[in-house]
Amino acid sequence: MTARTAAFALLMGNFVIGLSIIGPAGMIEPLAFDFGISVANAAVLITYGAIILCIGSPLVAWGVSTFDRRILLAATMAVLAIGHVASALAPSFAILLVIRLVTMAFAAIFTPQAASAISMMVPERERPGAISFLFLGWSLSAAVGMPMVAWVAAEYGWRSVHWALAGVATLAAIGVLLSVPRNLRGIAISMASWGQLLRDPFVLILLAATILAGMGQFIIFTFFAPLLSRTMMATPAEVATCFAVLGVAGFIGNVAATRMVGRIGALATSLVFFAALLAGATIWALANGSVTVALIASFVWGLGFASSNSMQQARLAAAAPALAGGAIALNSSSIFIGQASGSAVGGALFDRGLFVVMSWASVTLLAATLALIFLSGRLEKKPS
Q: Which of 36, 95, 304, 372: disulfide with 277, CB 3.0–4.6 Å?
């Protein structure tokens, strides 16, 4: 099997991981209705799940750095499949939450270790593009997966979504098992390695930018569907369309970033797509109840949704190639810190009906993120 075949299998795995993590945002209202709880209470599936992912990602990177990537990644997909079956059968919200937390502990393994694996399979000059390619899986989870989640949950119930995800995760496990080379192992990550990463100002500023970007996006994204229906009177079809537009734009953005990075470099590409996040959030804040404007905002926002993070991963991997698994795990942890805090702040504001404040808080955080990305260029080590 070639590295390209393995890359497609890992991309599929990232598709499952992406939907497993952000999927509740597309079915939050049917799920809340089914269990008789508020939307904000149902949102703890994302908040608490993100906390587990935040803690788990660096711990896993440390604990499994020398494991055979083929077995590790295939087993992760298999556990995810089992988790989705259990979720589909959950009799209460409390049990569903426990199942999700356990599942997310395993989900923390996949994305950073997949990026680490592909880094070991391709030449150094191809790594940024290869890592960006894997993140097309996240883009596809938003482009194809989230509209389907929103539609299926509305029409057939949220449990049907979990049955479907269990099937896709099983296929991904088989694909990884058949395509990733045997005995692909990284170097052991020691406490000194973590210290080396966390003393690097460039690494720290990128991690801070990732946290702020996650907060800025998930203040809105966790409540994307209920905000559309309550502030813009969007129908279920219009909500699914907004998810689709955001996701398709995310796919386009990541493809564009994958092609741009080799020509203009990772910093310039990052600035372009983080600027898209800020522009999309600003248009959303100015939507003033218009679904049409929300669609435009979704497209612009979507261009940076996955591409901005793939550039973060690529820049971190380039900054510390020998510790790429650890650096990417720290970035993943930062993503989930942002998701958890953004969802929590968004939930508090949503419960109080402060929908306009949610929008402008998102804009403020994404503006600060763009400033940090610009500043990171001054700290980046230039290749000799």
A: 304
